[in-house]
Amino acid sequence: MEKGSLISHASSLFWEGHGVPWAPHLLQRPGEKTPQPSPPPENRHSPGRCGCSPSQARRRAKDAPPAQGGRGTAPAPAFSGPAARAEQITELCGAKRVGYFGPTQFYVALKLIAAAQSGLPVRIESIQCELPLPRFMMSKTDGEIRFGNPAELHGTKMQIPYLITEKNTFKRMDDEDKQETQSPTMSPLASPPSSPPHYQRVPLSHGYSKLRSSTEQMHPAPYDARQPLVQPEGASTGGPGAKPPRHQTSLIRSFSVEREPQDNNSNYPDEPWRITEEQREYYVNQFRSLQPDPSSFISGSVAKNFFTKSKLSIPELSYIWELSDADCDGALTLPEFCAAFHLIVARKNGYPLPEGLPPTLQPEYLQAAFPKPKWECALFDSYSESMPANQQPRDLNRMEKLSIKDMADFPVPIQDVTGDDKQALKNTVDEVLPKDMSEDPATPKDSNSLKARPRSRSYSSTSIEEAMKRGEDPPTPPPRPQKTHSRASSLDLNKVFQPSVPATKSGLLPPPPALPPRPCPSQPEQASEAELHPQLNRAPSQAAESSPTKKDLPYSQPPSKPIRRKFRPENQATENQEPSTTVGGPASVAAAKPHPTVQKQSSKQKKAIQTAIRKNKEANAVLARLNSELQQQLKEVHQERIALENQLEQLRPVTVL
Amino acid sequence: MAVCVAVIAKENYPLYIRSVPTENELKFHYMVHTSLDVVDEKISAMGKALVDQRELYLGLLYPTEDYKVYGYVTNSRVKFVMVVDSSNTALRDNEIRSMFRKLHSSYTDVMCNPFYNPGDCIQSRAFDSMVTSMMIQVC
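YS: structure for the whole thing
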């Protein structure tokens, strides 16, 4: 339904609902006095008959706290009270002339309402001056009434389609309003076609502080109201760039509200460049998500990927980087990162980028002002372990959501956000900051995973409990390297017997998967080796006895396995007398054979400990042998290198420097 | 002091060129362009030697009656060309060298910016301001 038809229906219903016959002449003669029959007081009682904006506007005017006086010049003071003012406003804004409440008229109307509320006479001139935003004390019942219209409908059937279409159009108009009326304090006094540029210019003149003060007023009151009406409270999207209004609205709201508790009435010259505590927390968490170590850097590419998600243009991002990377090293420390993030947030809110880094964003200032948070929280330990399945990218829009979430005081979902954002907002709004922190360790250290996260993901998926559970995981990893190390040594044995292979130190370093603990049957054989250990009399192996843990059992078992296999054919000749660097283990294994039954008598614990001791000794022996082998190889490689260098010297052309 | 400053990429296209806007800038562009030949000549004159044996500062490339053109090459074959006014006799070689060093360090700062793709035009404000400071010092 077009606006044109909307008007007529709306107007007709309005007047009908109020028991006044529709007077079409009213629409044609704008300057005329308002109709003689005074609108009955039922105006106030049956506001719900129409879901259209004209009635909305009027209702709003009525809802607004009555101000004294303020009668328009043109309409005769036939009526008193808010209803009359509503009429005046309607008339003044041109709705009557045009026949409908277009955006232009809507803005003017709201502006007039603001004027009326502040006590100014309801005239066009009163719009010129800067006014606080109009306050609407609307309750949720309005919405109910609006949607309950069909139920209340007693009228003819033809009213029903009107209402339905009205609802649709009203919603549509709301959307338009959301998109267009970002700040109703502007009133396009020019004709409608030229109004958009006009009211876009105006907010700049108002200044941001003005908006902020007005947002402060707006915040406490209308959060119960329907969001679309409260929409204009703070968005300064009339500012530079045509950023998506929704994002900006949410940002600006969060931004202004963030500042609200901090410096309520003090307008520092660098106020937008001051990082609040909440913001700081958020930035720090983001930093941690990119780089778990708070004292190190975020590399350039990582930061680039991250900041690119903010959807700012590359030149702007480049400039922000230039500002924030104070030491120009291509990496961001934590204060630099916070500064950069803050600049991005500010830019998205419409603030022009400064010429130089503001003093409050200097790294030294930031480091001094905000001492490092407690990194030793358990969540930090969970970084290495917490690799949740939801490796989703962290869109910087989440930053917006988070900054809103930071408020956490405003549970009302922000409807002016896009669907995705809205969803995430609804989720995030219910969460608290700590959940944000729990969120961050959830992402892996690899920042590349930041890209792939769908936007619908929200923090509701993680909770503090989950994070704490992740925090319990860390203790397990450390033992692993030992196992792998042992496994590596066993592999090396295989390599050792293939001397042609230049098994370099890589044999020890790559952690192959550890073997599962060997089954018990092998223990008797190994237990018998314990007897042989005293015979072996190897000093390094004694040290291994100090830590016969269960882990060492599997630790030492793998090496013995190949040892046994390899040395079985040779075990006859080799006995304990072999040099300690070699077959000590295998020798024990070999000698174990003749004494398979001796150890069976000892208790299982003793067995286990002794087995462990044995394993360690074997492992030590193996490692020592490997070490010698590798040393030998190293020497050979050295010699090769020297030879090659000599050749190079000879081959290199003689150049005169 | 400098009348025109240009940064030329390895492939000999300009990454950044800026002149004192009082004169016909095209003339300076031509001068820089022709000086590239001289720069290449000087580079190749080093022979097949290793890069680190080559001097970065190339010195006076060629003088004209009004201007002198100085050159500087980085290790990555990025060339800086500077045109100075001949009437500015107080300008010594050392000062030119220092100016080139400043240029070089600003250039590396630009490179450090991850949002800068090598090969793009240089749009860094810090770089601009540094060049402006060099050009404004007209005696």
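YS: worth flagging: Chain B touches chain A at residues 49, 53, 108-109, 111-116, 123-126 (CB under 8 Å).
IM: good catch. Also The helical segments of chain B are 25-45, 93-112, 125-136.
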